[in-house]
Amino acid sequence: MAKQSKRTIPTLIYQYQGPQRNVGFVLSPLYIEESVEVEIEDMLFIYNEDFDYIRPALDCAFPLTDPRTGEEMKALDPCWENPITKEVWVGILSELDQQLVTDPELRIFLNRFTVWVRNHLQLADGIEVIGNL
């Protein structure tokens, strides 16, 4: 019997070269009203060092209101769940699209990220950013 490969969360890498599955952020489609089970293949992992190129655009969106609890989220929590609605992502994606970048590899990384987010926002209510710091 052939051994089945273990399912893993896809990883988006720009420059990270450290140990596999180190500190970083998992992004997952967010469904507020519906109880949709998100498949592991629909998530995305980005190492903290690479996430630093995306984080300023996210930080500009805060403070936000948690769409599930109504609680205020003062800043992106690198240790917990950060549910961000589709409407907020529109501004974040615009910021990333307009970011002046001289390194072509960084532009490719940012484009891959924004394409991933846009594809998942077609069905989801938002994207949840979950830190593991």
SSE blueprint:
Elements: E1 24-30, E2 44-47, H1 48-51, H2 55-59, E3 64-65, E4 72-73, E5 81-85, H3 86-98, H4 104-121, E6 126-131
Helix pairs in contact: 3-4
Give the number of DSSP strands.
6
Elements, N to C (H/E): EEHHEEEHHE
Summing up helix and strand content along with how strands pair, one would put the structural category as alpha+beta
> Helical residue percent?
25-40%
* Shape category: globular
Strand order of the largest sheet: 2-1-6-5
Largest sheet: 4 strands, antiparallel
Q: Which ranges are low-confidence, i.e. pLDDT below 50, for 5 or more consecutive residues?
A: none
Gyration radius from CA atoms, angstroms: 15 Å
Regarding quaternary structure, how should these chains be classified?
Answer: single chain
**Mean of residue pLDDT?**
92
Q: How much strand content do the residues show?
A: 15-25%
Tally of helical runs? 4
